[in-house]
Amino acid sequence: MTVAEFGSFAELVLTRSDERGDGDAFLFLADGVKGKEPERLSYLGLDRTARDIASWLQERGLAGRQVLLLFPSGLDFVKAFVGCLYAGAVAVPAPLPSEQGQHFRRVSGIVRDARVGAVLTLAEHAPEVEAWLKAEGFSDVACLATDQGAVGDADAWRDPGLSPKDLAFLQYTSGSTSEPKGVMVTHGNLLANEAAIARSTGNTSESMVGGWLPFYHDMGLMGHVLQPLWLGTTGVLIPPVSFLRRPVRWLELVSEYGVNASAGPNFSFDLCVRRITDAQLEGLDLSSWRTACNGAEPVRAETVKAFTERFGPYGFRPEAMFPCYGMAETTLLVTGIPRNRAALLREVDAAGLERGVVEGPYLGALRRTLVSSGVARAEDFEVRIVDPETLVECAEGKVGEIWVRGASVSSGYWERPEVNAEIFGARIVDQEDLGTWLRTGDMGVLGDGELFVTGRLKEMVLINGRNIYPYDVESAVRALNPAIGTGAVFAVDTGGQEHLVVIHEIRAAAAGADLKTVTAEVQQHVGREFAVPVGNVLFVRPGTVRKTTSGKTQRTLMRKLFLEGAVGALHSVLDPAVAALVEAGAQAAQADGPAPAEVG
Amino acid sequence: MSVPATDPTANTEPTAESLSSWLADRIALYLQRSPSEIQPTVPLAEYGLDSVAALSLCGDIEEDFDLVLEPTVAWDYPTIEALAGHLVEELQSMEGGSR
């Protein structure tokens, strides 16, 4: 099975439906796993519905246009997605706003940016979608409910004759709340990355694939929906909410259906360790799980160890844990650990890592544990570590920005030529003739061909020539006092000098000391452990530190709010130069218009 | 984790007190705190309750009491005291309905 066999993912699905016919393409369990009968979608059923939806889109001239998919978790999403591919339209998956209690306004940014021509949804959501489109003035955007029987004429469908260069979908990444950016994924990218995923995970047409991830997220879409189709196997799916309510359902799914490959971000493995009881585990058999992809957020050594220990007695093998690295900009997967080997944890000298060098660990010195994200396969990707300032390739063992190239790498964000030239068209100094690379914005280091991700470039703080990773400082501060909660650590520049700013939530009444004393402890501890001056500490009320809906701390947003004087503190100490900067920022923000709502 | 004050499988009616204790145990687990830190009248948001923890709570209520609730319940009844009171009412009306 090679990529060259297919000109497009649409062609691949057509071929699979010929091969598999009445065989199950997907099983979906909306509410629980054990003792429940799944909803089934055969390859032929998928093909038939996709032709019907595609004919409706073609009839309305939407081939080549962007089509927004607003669906709750379920098989109707899959039908609509494949329908778009069959029509030669560009699918734009997004979360159904009412499902997460978010306002439709958030999706409006995507409709505008992608210049969406139609919205596909379910009949039960069509009235609210139509009302929203009308209210936002999207009068030329059609809305279709795809779950009410035939919507078009399947026999009138015409094969759009797509090539690998044609766009398949736009992936709007989850962090882009304020300024949505859609990664352009072509049919060629899609086919290349599905092949890369199969090679890296060892998945075959015999593999059972599935899990609980949302379909509008790159990991869920590429890993759990399109991978089974690419393989010609069966995908078995449950909604995210079902998993979050009862995490054991993920493991029940693996056990009941003999799932071989299932993915989740680090937090979901953590959730299993913390919430699943012995009673719930009774009778579960996880021995079918060959590849437990752990990616999409930093892979934590503690989680890898705890999950493997907790579920080992139920058949989970250490070598099943599959730390991996990837992003929407590379369609999905870049690296994963070699199969039949357990996760590789590496202790390194903490001070060395701050200087951007992987060395040690040394006796008696502080250490950090890095988790290997594995290797890139030569036929799929090239990975280099490059100094983000000089753009010169780093020597092995030196931390730098992760640069990537290969057939899965997107050509860029939708209609963002300037950003694309910088991010997707980067060249390595003295190796310009190699061509262009994607700058991932992630920092990492290569050792024996294995990639260790150490943090994010933009959030990284450079003080006194040291690389300070905010997450590390935040963890250290939290460990000081149980009353200290979520934090956001970043740097501000007062003209030539970088200052560390530490903002943490605190339950003041539970701190056991006055905030002045706790502040002094933080300054002393961070100052000693990280060897940087901590002139700026703000303790704020719980709920002040902003997070994305997926729980990531929004350090960049907190930095902006701080510089606008919009972070109200219970107690703070500020370096005089920083205080002056904040004062000036607050005045500028006020002059610019209505002050942003104060947080805290 | 401390032992729950009420064994939900036992054939006794949960009271507001026993439910408060059960809730404090569960919420302490989600938020990785000690149950004694969770005060019954302090809004749960102040302890860092987020949407994932709210869903977790609904899952555990469903598991132990066979009562299906929407995750918004944790925001509508924002303290242990309020939640326990609501649960008692819901459980009583469920009992009444099944008779």
From TrEMBL, chain B:
The Carrier domain extends over: 17-91
Q: Which GO terms describe its biological process?
A: antibiotic biosynthetic process
Organism domain of life:
Bacteria
InterPro entries to which the protein is assigned, alphabetical: ACP-like_sf, PKS_PP-bd, PP-bd_ACP
**What GO molecular function annotations does the UniProt record carry, in alphabetical order?**
phosphopantetheine binding
**Pfam families the record matches:** PP-binding (PF00550)
Keyword annotations for this protein, in alphabetical order, are: Phosphopantetheine, Phosphoprotein
Name of the protein in its database record: Polyketide synthase
